[in-house]
């Protein structure tokens, strides 16, 4: 957050803005879901819930809710060993993007 915006937040709320890593603009849940997909991909396509939560910095219940949504939509799959991998829908999107490139 730039200094002027931080001063505005302090003036409006009376407290300083959190000093954690800057957040991307947009929808937080979408940002978090994409982080999960990127982490799964970076780790060979298979991680447990606890590993995903640790790698993304998300609370496990939050990661689990996002995973359930992505499973329902086909972007993530749960493997027999209860770990999570990338889903079939990502392959289809990748192929479509490659064909248009």
From TrEMBL:
<dbReference type="GO" id="GO:0006071">
    <property type="term" value="P:glycerol metabolic process"/>
</dbReference>
<protein>
    <recommendedName>
        <fullName>Glycerol operon regulatory protein</fullName>
    </recommendedName>
</protein>
<dbReference type="Pfam" id="PF09339">
    <property type="entry name" value="HTH_IclR"/>
</dbReference>
<dbReference type="InterPro" id="IPR005471">
    <property type="entry name" value="Tscrpt_reg_IclR_N"/>
</dbReference>
<keyword id="KW-0238">DNA-binding</keyword>
<dbReference type="InterPro" id="IPR036388">
    <property type="entry name" value="WH-like_DNA-bd_sf"/>
</dbReference>
<dbReference type="GO" id="GO:0003700">
    <property type="term" value="F:DNA-binding transcription factor activity"/>
</dbReference>
<dbReference type="InterPro" id="IPR050707">
    <property type="entry name" value="HTH_MetabolicPath_Reg"/>
</dbReference>
<keyword id="KW-0805">Transcription regulation</keyword>
<comment type="function">
    <text>May be an activator protein for the gylABX operon.</text>
</comment>
<feature type="domain" description="HTH iclR-type">
    <location>
        <begin position="27"/>
        <end position="88"/>
    </location>
</feature>
<dbReference type="GO" id="GO:0003677">
    <property type="term" value="F:DNA binding"/>
</dbReference>
<dbReference type="InterPro" id="IPR036390">
    <property type="entry name" value="WH_DNA-bd_sf"/>
</dbReference>
<keyword id="KW-0804">Transcription</keyword>
<dbReference type="GO" id="GO:0045892">
    <property type="term" value="P:negative regulation of DNA-templated transcription"/>
</dbReference>
<feature type="compositionally biased region" description="Low complexity">
    <location>
        <begin position="8"/>
        <end position="26"/>
    </location>
</feature>
<keyword id="KW-0319">Glycerol metabolism</keyword>
<feature type="region of interest" description="Disordered">
    <location>
        <begin position="1"/>
        <end position="26"/>
    </location>
</feature>
